[in-house]
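User: Teach me something about this protein's shape.
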Amino acid sequence: MASNSVRFTTVLARCIKNASGARSRGSLQHARSFCQEFFSWYNTEHHHSGLGLLTPEVVHSHRAEQVRDLRQHTLDIAYAAHPERFVRKPPQPPALPTAVWINPPPKPESGPPDSEETVQ
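Assistant: First, the predicted structure itself:
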């Protein structure tokens, strides 16, 4: 089964590496403290491009459409005030993802099974 968990882990490791405070090495308490702070930020404040520039918290709390609608409203106001700033078309927020997976579930097989056993 193909997995994109390696890509996810690589991106997460890069994000941790670039986070302030990750460079100092210390005790297990320091590591735990850093991770608690980091993952709180990552899930509630960091806007992910793969999630339509939303946070995981917004997506998992089923508020993605509401937030996208608010963004669209703000963009509509900006467009009405200064349409000359938008050369091609009225602005739109990023599309919402239809599904987000680290490891997608396996697709069900279609067609008859390879061998059928009959009980007599």
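Now, about its shape. The longest helix spans residues 64-81. The radius of gyration is 22 Å. If you'd like, I can walk through any region in more detail.
User: That's plenty for now, thanks!
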